[in-house]
Amino acid sequence: MPSHSRGGGRGRPSRGGPRPTPSANPSARRGGAPNASSQPCKFLMRGGCKFGTRCQYSHNLAPSQRPPTQNNQAPAPNFPGLSNDGFSKVEQNTTPGKVFNSLKIYVEDTFKFQTAEQVYRFLSLICSASSQNSTWTAQDGQLHLHQLVEGNGIQRIADAICFPKQTTRAWSFQRGYIPIFTYLASDWVVKSTMNSDINALYGLVHNNFQIIRDTVETNIRKCMTARSFKDGSYSCSGKQVFKVLFVTLFEYVVLRHPAKVSSSPHRNCIYRYLTRFKDSPITNPGVRDFTEQIVAWFDEWLVALAATPPFQDECRTYDEEKREFIIENLRRDKEKILRVVQRGQTVVTNSEVRMPYELLGDVDPAIVAALERNFDFDGPGELCENGPRHDNDFEEIELIRVAPTRDELLCEDDPYLPPNFFEAPHFHEPRSVDRLLDIQFRLLREELTSVSLYCALVDVGPDITYVDDYFRSPIRLAVQLMAEDLKKSKSGQTTLSKLLTSKGGRYAGPATARESIIFSVFTGITFKPLQLSNRGISAGIEFDTPPGRARSDKPGARMEYWEQVTKKRLSQDGLVALIWKDHIGNVDIYVGTVASSGRDLVECSRQTKGKDRVSIRVSFFDAKANVRIVQALQSRRSSNDTRLLIEAPVFYEGIRPFLEALKREPELLPFGQYLSLQSKDELAQTNISPPLYSRTPGFSYELKDLFPQAAGVRSLKLNTRDPDSIINARAQLIRASRLDPSQADAVVDSLTREIALIQGPPGTGKSYTGLELIRVLVKNKIAPILLVAFTNHALDHMLTGILDANISHKIVRIGSRFSVDERLGPYSLDTIERAQGKSRLGKSGGAIYRQMKE
Predict the structure, then answer these.
(1) Which of 7, 172, 197, 501 could cross-link 207 (Cys pair, CB 3.0–4.6 Å)?
(2) How far is CA 404 from CA 18, 427, 473, 481, 536, in A?
């Protein structure tokens, strides 16, 4: 299956294996007809064939020839109302082997759609990869996706998109277009981690957007006029049409858009076109209009279902509970995509307007007034009276680099730090998730990098007290102290000059400073050649061995010293800064992370020269650092530059993932409606809904496993949609279950709320209550369940409790390999991966990795 540029460009050589010649491939010799070669594929019989549709052998295996399935794979939750696939109909009798064989004719280089029936058949085949199809596994679906994108399959999808513009014959929108969106919106596509493949697939939407818009609007308009989505005998429901369109638009707008970030000062209006397609509301305003038109038709469809005459649709045949559940699901999708496109529109047209906020409750107006005055001239980025403070100061956190830049580290202006309470001024809407993420990101990042001379607001009981709190975080203060000393080096003795004389050591901030800070300084910096590894490009940094035991004459003593030091300093992924003063006095700062391991540094110290010199490898964030290092290595002149390496006394990698996660699209934040800032009165009136899966029609919890056998309880149902059922379940659990009254209340409240917090003093049975909750979820086949703990000990304690209570043995422990209980060893991710062996996806990944190395 030859590859073409993603989105329908020119062809390029095939990847993943050589193309069989016509003489070696009977299917190619006979025009690509399916099942041309009846000999079964031996690779598929062993568990997987990396050639997929390019394979010359048959993938249509008899049941006796199929490899055994993995029996330890957790079953998929049976909640169709929560699955995108549950809104669509696909062929149920097409196995992966049949699809792979049948697709061969469509992916030939010379193939072109001649008839609409060919388009229908092709789209039906690719949509067979669905979680609804019991003959397919998730692994089959991912391999199917990868082979479509890597070969001519993606070109055929592009051809299907353009087909209605190129044909004059009869063509069905329901059979020739809706399936395209059905596949784009399918669970195995939108939930896939193969981002490059999904981005390529959604690139088809971006590259052909105008064709898609014209085709969809023309045909849905006809359907709305006809009051039906049916096409003759082909049944199609509005629930499928609007579901796949809403999901596809959201994925395209929020996650998959390939456009670049604009340099406009109003960047906050363009990043929304979704994290990867950032400027679509500006460069392609038709997306917003198209979305709003689809939303208008959806609202019209809802009204027409109950009108006279009614809209002819399958949803009218459902009972009220099922119909309302489906409509609620569709409304959530509608509101989500509508908020995204309208948020962009609001910022574009009203970029200078600040959202109003209210003084509610018992907040001191004087405090808020002071914050208002400060915000008027000291907001972030362009909202600051004098403009951005430095090159990393933006209104939108999505554009802020987590690692500090040179300008930021040397900037002496106070950063923008938003107060973290509802009534305080902010440039985002008061109750928006945008505001929540902005506040959390800026305050957390301040602990890592920035300088702050700011006021903190501390909540003390019912009153909010204004407290002055001056502080600076380590890395920025360290850089500024070093820069000041470098400028004074010729005028007199400084703390740094003493360290240069002693060839390194610990730098203690001057006693006159408001802050107390101590950090390591490494001197005599020289470089080693750049290297490329799976951690990226890194430069070798050699420096003077610091004073003390590190300079011992005994290699063993030196190794022991560095073994202890690297547990907290110069550890892998730690944040460091290279400070480089050239011969004319210019000072540059290059920030990076330690790429080498602590073991590498220990081994380096063991060598003879380890008494005087040791080295590490550093990955710098700025490519300029690597270029300058290469120039220094190539230069034959002696250098008068002063080069120092300092280490930030914070663990960068421990904070970075959280900061990156806070930069996400707000609509992707779970439980945003509960987490966003609200007034105290609003919080007191918050109504928490039951879990969405528990509202699936026909679903109810079975709680009989919470009772001892002596209680004789054969069944106890809990229906979260029925208040009487909740009252009865609570009473029965208090009366006869293994739980005490407070534990029973906690279990019922947790099962009937989508977010819950169980608290209590030591010894009240919080862990036991958690185990019983897990028991209920497992017995009701609600999976997967994610357990998160602050420490390894706490996590292992809960996992051993699950094993001891015989709740489940389907456990995968992620994290540290060291466990309190040796029984958890077989459940570690590393152990399970080794036992599983390689999958078909692993083979494809290996081929791609080899290509990258070449």
Answers:
(1) 7
(2) 47, 23, 12, 16, 19
Q: DSSP secondary structure string, 352-404? A: TPPPP----TT--HHHHHHHHHHHHHB-SGGGBTT--SSTT--SSGGGS-SSP
- pLDDT tens per residue, range 713-743: 999 999 999 999 999 999 999 999 999 999 9
Residue 698 contacts by C-beta under 8 Å, 6 or more apart in sequence?
A: none
Q: Is residue 52 within a helix (H) or strand (E), and if so which, with residue range?
A: none
Residue range 167-194: mean pLDDT, rounded: 92
- Amino acid found at 1: M
- The burial of 196, by beta-carbon neighbours within 10 Å (0-12 exposed, 13-18 middle, 19 or more buried), is given as exposed
pLDDT tens-digit readout, 15-69: 333 344 333 333 333 333 344 456 667 655 545 565 555 566 666 655 555 554 4
**What CA–CA distances, in Å, run from 555 to 213, 505, 609, 617, 678?**
71, 20, 10, 21, 61
| C-beta neighbour count of 437 within 10 angstroms | 23
User: Do 282 and 262 contact (CB within 8 A), yes or no?
Assistant: yes
Residue 326: phi and psi, rounded to 5, are -65, -45
| Number of residues written out for the chain | 854
Output 800 or 830, whichever has higher pLDDT.
Answer: 800
Tokens of 644: 């120092």
Alpha helices in 607-751 (DSSP H): 623-634, 652-662, 672-675, 680-684, 723-736, 741-751
Q: Per-residue pLDDT tens for 774-783?
A: 999 999 999 8
- For 743-780, the pLDDT digits (tens) are 999 999 999 999 999 999 999 999 999 999 999 999 99
The H or E element that residue 10 is part of is none
Q: Pick the range with the lowest mean pLDDT from 42-46, 125-129, 581-585, 794-798.
A: 42-46
Are β-strands 701-702 and 451-460 bridged in parallel, bridged antiparallel, or unpaired?
unpaired
Residue 13: is the preceding peptide bond cis (ω within 30°)? no
| Residue from 781, 836, 769 nearest 808 by CA | 781
Say if CB 90 and CB 127 are below 8 A apart. yes
Task: Say which amino acid occupies 785.
Answer: I
Q: Which residue bears the tokens 């105008």?
A: 210
Q: How far apart are CA 772 and CA 705, in angstroms?
A: 9
Q: How far apart are CA 731 and CA 748, in angstroms?
A: 10
Average pLDDT across the chain, whole number? 80
Task: Give the range among 593-597, 633-637, 650-654 with minimum mean pLDDT.
Answer: 650-654
What domains lie within the chain, and their CATH numbers? 1-66+87-207 (no CATH), 212-335 (no CATH), 365-473+659-680 (no CATH), 478-649 (no CATH), 681-836 (3.40.50)
Separation CA 734–CA 732 (nearest Å): 5
pLDDT in tens, 121-138: 999 999 999 988 888 988
Give pairs for 556-563: CB < 8 Å, separation 24+.
558/605, 558/606, 558/610, 558/611, 559/602, 559/605, 559/606, 561/605, 562/598, 562/601, 562/602, 562/605, 562/614, 563/598, 563/602
Question: By the 8 A CB rule, do 643 and 527 touch?
Answer: no
Q: Are 90 and 175 in contact (CB under 8 A)?
A: no
The residue whose two tokens read 């730098």 is: 507
